[in-house]
Amino acid sequence: MHVAVFSAKPYDIAYLTAANAADPGHDLRFHAARLAPGTTALARGAEAVCAFVNDRLDRPVLEALAALGVRLVALRSAGFNHVDLAAAKAAGIALCRVPAYSPHAVAEHSLALILTLNRKTHRAWARVREGNFELDGLMGFDLYGKTVGVIGTGRIGSILARILLGFGCRVVAHDPNPDPDCLARGVAYLELDPLLAASDIVTLQCPLTAQTHHLIDDRAVARMKTGAMLINTSRGAVIDTRAIIRGLKSGRIGSLGLDVYEEEGELFFEDLSNRIIPDDVFARLLTFPNVLITGHQGFFTTEALTAIAETTLANITAYERDGAPLHPVPGPLA
Ligand code: NAI
Questions:
Q1: Average pLDDT, stretch 52-61?
Q2: Which of 30, 76, 154, 208 measures 20 to 30 Å from 298, CA to CA?
Q3: For ligand 1, is residue 175 a contact (CB within 6 Å)?
Q4: pLDDT beyond 60 at 333
Q5: What is the 78 CA–ligand 1 centroid distance (Å)?
């Protein structure tokens, strides 16, 4: 099957090509460009499009792809909040995703943000390289005995909860579908407000949905413990960034670790180091000494990229063979 692969980085090309060699037959055409209204023509002749998290999959793009004959959009991600599901259905385009590639990768990245922010190893590294061995400003706290609130205990959140229990943390959680393993390990499920009030660290591991959009807003920040740490490796819009900035300025939020950002589509995955960042909200975030941002790299491990490539190709193969991908995206409003 001719597949137009958008937002193709060198690592995507390497891993997809390797996985395709093991299961030959797909004609992968790699395009560095993001999928957007101006780039849909690159999919001419393709029956499938392979897209990532910051590709545009709104109604105009999906209609343009359908008009070109595209019948399948294979997401190289678990999240599908960027897809207009109703428009895809109306356009007759099937959608599939990679529901689980390495939940450990993202859980461990959340932990990396927690440990780095807490012990300030990023700042210590820079200091020591400059010959500055002062400790002032590098004080952290013991994770042992602290309460961590995990919002969303699905594949990623449940692994993070287990890791944190290993550190001797008390883990509380908020999820409409409690995880049996977490329950068995003594994780207490709370409503959102009591979780926010109890937690020294709040970490977001839920999907972006209509219910979780701006879940952490001014109201939620006001309910957090003064000085609490907030971590988001899920999707940017689960937090209201402006409210978080207000929380940082007031000191209610003691530190912030982000792997995702509401408007990351304009920034992440590109080298913009020679350009002016036009996003004033993001630029403000960068000025805080207690904010640590990574550019959506939670998934970025060799294990995860191998699994993403293999599952993506298996989805496409199943669609070609059986008319249905292995891992269809749930329907509208799912
Ligand atoms: P999952 O579907 O296994 O788990 C999500 C959990 O969130 C479920 O248990 C669900 O019941 C819960 N949830 C739904 N609505 C909620 C709400 N209102 N409040 C609290 N919990 C709620 O998903 P998984 O694999 O654990 O991934 C979670 C999210 O992480 C993905 O949707 C994606 O947005 C993000 N992600 C980020 C990556 C990164 O590179 N930073 C990579 C992969 C995923």
A1: 96
A2: 30
A3: yes
A4: no
A5: 9
* Banded model confidence at residue 332, pLDDT cuts 50, 70, 90: low
Q: In sequence order, what are the residues at sequence separation of 6 or more whose Cβ sits closer than 8 angstroms to the Cβ of residue 132?
A: none
Distances in Å between the alpha carbon of 32 and those of 55, 130, 231?
A: 11, 38, 30
Contact 183, 200 (CB under 8 A): no
Ligand 1 centroid to Cα of residue 137, in Å, is 34
- Domain 103-293 belongs to what architecture? 3-Layer(aba) Sandwich (3.40)
The domain segmentation of the chain, as residue ranges, is 2-101+301-322, 103-293
88: burial class by Cβ within 10 Å (0-12, 13-18, 19+)?
buried
Q: What is the mean pLDDT of the chain?
A: 96
Mutate to test the pocket of ligand 1, among 52, 110, 163, 205 (most ligand atoms within 8 A of CB): 205
153 Cβ closer than 6 Å to some ligand 1 atom: yes
> Taking CA 22 as the corner, what is the angle to CA 18 and CA 25, rounded to the nearest 5 degrees?
100
Query: 152: CA distance to ligand 1 center in Å?
Result: 6
- Give the catalytic positions in this structure: 235, 264, 296
Give the residue whose CA is nearest to atom 1 of ligand 1.
154
Ligand 1 atom 20, closest CA: 175
The pTM for the full model equals: 0.93
pLDDT tens-digit map of 291-316: 999 999 999 999 999 999 999 999 99
Domain pair 2-101+301-322 / 103-293, same fold = yes
> Does 334 score more than 50 pLDDT?
no
